Amino acid sequence: MKKIISAAFIFMGLFMSQYSLAGVGAFIVSIDSKAVNEVYGGLKWTLGSGSKVPEVVVGHRKTNVDLVVSLSPLNYLKIDIDELSLDGVNGHDISFSINLEELKLSAIRAKYFDGNASTQNELSVGWDIRKGVFIGAGFGAAHSTIGVDYSLRSSDTQSAFSPYITLNSLEKTSLKFGENWTGTCRHDLQVGSDYPLVKREYDSGYYCWVDLP
After folding, report:
1. For 82-126, how does the pLDDT look when each residue is reduced to its tens digit (9 = 90+)?
2. Are strands 104-115 and 161-168 parallel, antiparallel or unpaired?
């Protein structure tokens, strides 16, 4: 999701007297969030199943981030890391569960999640080799998920519910330059000239130099 942070960073003539106001134009900074794909693993315990042996979970997750940006007009060519923050996290996930006692596939799950950097609500649908099609809801955080599945094929309401706990390798979502966000800047008088943001070596900020025409 690309966000045009400012189309009004006008470098006024009082700062550069050799340019007229009409000839200076504006500096435009664009911040672009990027989806992140990752493979993860985990262990899942189904409560009330009668087995203490966890299932192995292997999955693939695609995570989108929404950014909030508050740039200072006085620092139009640099971005400090505290001027960027996560507004939300969402995405989808598909995973496979493997029964360690029988060494075979036990379930397939597709999931949608939405929340913030620390916690997400989850909705899922899947197929269990013993119980058939199920729907589920859960709550995810860093390295863990708790949830409950409901089997649509079960005739007994009580046995249809399967609460579970999963420990996994998924970390808390954080802003990572070049991985889930990037940016460019340009001068509006230079057509087709986009300059990438570059990490500053001496602190945690980023800068982008634009040559005036």
Report:
1. 777 888 999 999 999 999 999 999 999 999 999 999 999 999 999
2. unpaired
What residue spans define the domains of the chain? 2-207
* Chain position carrying tokens 């045009």: 4
Edge-to-edge strand order for the sheet containing 206-207? 78-79, 206-207, 198-199
Long-range own/partner contacts, residues 18-23 (CB < 8 A, 24 or more apart): 19/212, 23/189
Q: With a cut of 50, list the residues of the chain below it in pLDDT.
A: 2-24, 74, 212
- Looking at the DSSP bridge assignments, the partners of residue 10 are 26
Phi, psi at 50, each rounded to 5°: 90, -5
Beta bridge partners of 148: 137, 163
Tokens encoding 73? 């007009």
